[in-house]
């Protein structure tokens, strides 16, 4: 069974009792879990095993890997996410509560808020606050509730509204299961063994769910890497949670320190960086591959001084150019990934890649998911499908009368224009609204004529021009305005590249999620492989976790991008360092960094720590 395993992996497979496996990046943790599961199930023929993860796909994949090794154990192996398993427990225990949708939950929160006077409270922010509270073992002890009577009262009323209606929100599932296991009304799973993956991302209530199963007799195996704990903003317990798990169950700590992904030089950079963190489990990270890997000289470029240009324009332009040059030099199929701390940079990279006709894939945060992309789509879909709900998305920024929106589906633009013209209140606002409507009425006639004549590209460009002329109503600060304008340019490029002879068909083919993102990526990569072309993946650092690529560029490596306080004014440098470590350890063969700077001086804490604060400066 263990012929292909290294000594560390064999120890993890053969150890008995509760264990915590510290699995470094690229260390073969899934292989270890499947081998360990095989041993446990075969040594104890009557035993059962439950695997718990954070996504349905991960749960199904892990179960599939286990059953591949133990094909006759299908009835003895279960797998699911924390929430799906908790919901199953509630149903088995006869607790029947309907699950609120996000919108329904928001309406309940608004209702609870209406019981009190409090200026400036945003229901959406309150919903985020409540979700954060529900990640704790005891939500009532959430710090804001202890210091702010208003939010505590709204929380209590919100909870009472759900209880009175026999409803629950997403966060309630685990809490009801945990409370039920504590008081005996909910039965734990009778699993001989429980495997928990990505345990560094577990929050307090998820740890408690695991602990209650341990108290019920389940033997727990957790797999984690505290160096890859990057979800503190979701209240992941990280290093502290793993230490607590070991202490409470007297679990053994096992190590998987050998990285079978990164070249020696690449891994050495990651190790040098992460060892600057104080709160981490000590581990001897080492390379398990024979090739050295290549670290490129960093790219530095000046911030743009022009208000209508994204400040990292030059940096990103150089990175794309360097990747193209590298591909021309080596020839044939080549895979690159560009990783960024934020989605802004990825949107601009889409534009550059489109201009160069490079095959690329973006996993999250597509231009069509942006506010500018959604509003642009709403105008186009109104023209293609005559859907008034779509045009309301655009008009909502100009026509604010409740009467108009109550009746919008029974009107046309001309009728809206007449009613808005007759309004007496706020005449200046009404005049501005009328000007936009009047222009839209005129433009619509032109666009529909073009559609009849199959001049689809002219319609797409015309709608984009009209939207740009009114962008200030949607994006008032310069940064958002400039970003929205560039995103529109990308949207126009994407639609203009399609050859369908109807607008509706183009929109459907470009924006409809016909296949999963993973399948889209594979299809695009297969095309690039077949034609011997360059393929680029665009990911945020967060979304790259769990992935690996032959070649990687990490953009925005300066402190302006990586070490800026969040909206609450907080900055966790160790969390950001872990995020950079995750990004570095995505690369197998080649790794590059880029940063923007003022006056030729790059300020980058992390590049300095790994000795790469000297690079090539591009003007």
From TrEMBL:
Isomerase keyword on record: yes
Domain (UvrD-like helicase ATP-binding): residue spans on this chain: 2-263
EC code(s) of this entry: 5.6.2.4
One record GO biological process: recombinational repair
Gene3D superfamilies referenced in this protein's UniProt entry, alphabetically: 1.10.10.160, P-loop containing nucleotide triphosphate hydrolases (3.40.50.300), PCRA, domain 4 (1.10.486.10)
Listed GO MF terms: 3'-5' DNA helicase activity; ATP binding; ATP hydrolysis activity; DNA binding
The protein's enzyme class: isomerase
CDD domains: DEXQc_UvrD
Catalytic reaction list: Couples ATP hydrolysis with the unwinding of duplex DNA by translocating in the 3'-5' direction; ATP + H2O = ADP + phosphate + H(+)
Binding-site residues, ATP: 23-30
Residue ranges of domain UvrD-like helicase C-terminal in the record: 264-546
SUPFAM superfamilies named among the record's database cross-references: P-loop containing nucleoside triphosphate hydrolases
Keyword terms, alphabetized: ATP-binding, DNA-binding, Helicase, Hydrolase, Isomerase, Nucleotide-binding
Family assignment from sequence similarity: Belongs to the helicase family. UvrD subfamily.
PANTHER family on file: ATP-DEPENDENT DNA HELICASE SRS2, UVRD / RECB / PCRA DNA HELICASE FAMILY MEMBER
Protein name as it appears in the record: DNA 3'-5' helicase
Organism of derivation: Hydrogenovibrio marinus
